[in-house]
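User: Um, any thoughts?
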Amino acid sequence: MSTPKLICILGAESTGKTTLARQLAAQFACPWVPEYLRAFCDERGRTPLRHEQALILETQHRHELAAIAGAAPATPFVFCDTAPITTAIYSDYVFADASLYARGRTLHARYALTLLCMPDLGWVADGHQRDGPQAQRGVHALIERELARAALPVAPIHGHGEARFNDAVAALDRLR
């Protein structure tokens, strides 16, 4: 029995990560790990405070481990809607707190591929989690910086609808 490959779907807010994660999970009949931050915000009715960032990072990681452990034999992938490094990036962007980068970088090295959702869909408000187009641009720049620093496999995902999905499937087919 082989362990499924972890696939990270990364991007700033409002770049289609969740939609893509759901589509890919359905296409490949694989599990996907929802973004824990969304559940956190929904449960509390607010965005996290600085001291809660590490909890979010570690909970995302634990959910990924549980998905891997629960995957059926021969499951090729586990899709992760965002990653712990995202929490480190937002902690830096929102709170000027760089303390989570080391842990986020270590955990990011586990992914077989990062699908980087480009900010080309247009920004859409979404409850507690949306900071606006200016935050989207700033966070995207930090994500690109971190991915360049990591020198791990990354596939940029562009376009709308089917084009975006096809970009992702093509990148996954190259990985197999």
